[in-house]
Write a structure and sequence with these properties.
Length: 382
């Protein structure tokens, strides 16, 4: 009898990992699909002139569009597949997730593509990836699994907080060596917020925040280019041809868009006045062509995904699933906030893609996969 009961219990446990009865949150799927489609339009509009006039004879005006479409063709089915694979299986991948993240972060330091004085990109089998984007979610998966297993220990400093700080510190340190201070700061912020959501002692977190701010100030001061980038956003017109150039061009694009914009494909700033118009500053081109209304509608779409993600987190009864949904929503919302904050002059200039709209294969693939996991978690609450 005991053996039969044990067998039945084991079967039920396996079933819980493989079968889900609920429906996915189709509103997230609809919004993500719409943003991806709109992203293809914006990538072409923002990049075709640059690609045609600066990339050389071997490239055409469709270069960035074709690359974005290729990554979307890979990432979208992956997202749909992940909606069918029970998110609880990710719990068992916590070790490989953090290991792969660390290996990629170390590898890029030695074999990464050197660009603008840093090594942030790695070419694998002809595909360029950014390991720091992968590491963000690898860290979240590991933290969520740790905090869901050791909930009672998260109030303790030695057995709860310190192991997590070691993971966050190692990842941020490796990213700083690229060097990529802005990404390291973002990853650190994500880690601290996740610790708060995981139930860490608030006094410990406040002390940690003070130390992190002090470290940020020191790192900013010791490098002149970092300090210039941080201070230039306060008054970009003081050096419009130097450190403030990009932000000034962004202001021109957003301001000239007015309420309803100049219309699709009618941006002036993308005509080689603004650099990274197809990636980091694509929101400025969006506002120029679709105006204040287009920008607000885009932000509402992003806000809806974050809202639904947090609702899924609050309603999910599985602690790992709840933390994972919150972590995905946090990274997504923070990425949008940083990108838009940079473009509008609320934050210092840093290279962060606008999810689903900016040109960038790694960002697109990672966020599509994350949305697939989020929608799978929604099966437990719908």
């Amino acid at each position: 009898m005991e053996q039969a009961a044990g067998t039945t219990k084991a079967k039920r446990k396996r079933t819980s990992y493989t079968r889900q009865q609920g429906r996915i949150d189709f509103t997230i799927l609809a919004v993500v699909t719409a943003l991806c489609a709109f992203g293809l339009v914006m990538v072409f509009s923002a990049s075709y002139y640059y690609a045609q006039h600066t990339l050389g004879a071997n490239y055409d005006s469709f270069y960035y569009l074709k690359r974005q479409a290729l990554y979307l063709a890979i990432g979208y089915p992956v997202m749909l597949l992940l909606t069918r694979i029970n998110y609880r299986t990710i719990y068992r991948l916590r070790g490989p997730a953090i290991l792969v993240s660390l290996v990629l972060l170390v590898t890029v330091l030695f074999f990464g593509q050197e660009l603008n004085g840093g090594r942030r990109w790695l070419n694998l089998f002809g595909i360029s990836i950014q390991p720091s984007e992968i590491a963000k979610f690898g860290m979240i998966i590991y933290m969520c699994s740790f905090m869901s297993r050791r909930r009672d220990l998260m109030k303790e400093l030695k057995r709860g907080l310190l192991p997590m700080l070691m993971i966050i510190g190692i990842i941020c340190g490796l990213i700083m060596l690229q060097p990529n201070m802005s990404m390291a700061v973002i990853v650190g912020m994500i880690g601290i917020i996740m610790l708060y959501l995981g139930g860490c002692n608030l006094r410990h977190l406040l002390a940690l925040a003070v130390i992190a701010i002090a470290a940020f100030a020191v790192l900013a001061v010791v490098a002149d280019y970092r300090l210039a980038r941080i201070t230039s956003f306060r008054d970009p017109f003081s050096d419009p041809q130097g450190t403030g150039y990009q932000l000034v061009q962004s202001f021109y694009a957003i301001g000239s868009g007015g309420l309803f914009g100049k219309g699709l494909n009618n941006s002036y700033q993308k005509l080689l006045y603004m650099t990274y118009a197809e990636s980091d500053f694509i929101f400025a081109i969006l506002c120029e062509e679709f105006g204040f209304v287009g920008g607000v509608l885009t932000l509402i779409a992003y806000g809806w995904i974050v809202f639904r993600g947090m609702m899924i987190s609050l309603r999910c009864k599985n602690r790992f699933g709840s933390l994972l949904a919150a972590g995905i929503s946090l990274v997504f919302g923070l990425q949008v906030f940083v990108n838009v904050g940079v473009v509008t002059g609320l934050m210092p200039t840093t290279g962060q893609a606008l999810p689903f709209i900016s040109a960038g294969g790694t960002s697109l693939l990672i966020f599509l996969a994350a949305m697939g996991v989020l929608m799978n978690i929604s099966r437990d609450v719908n």
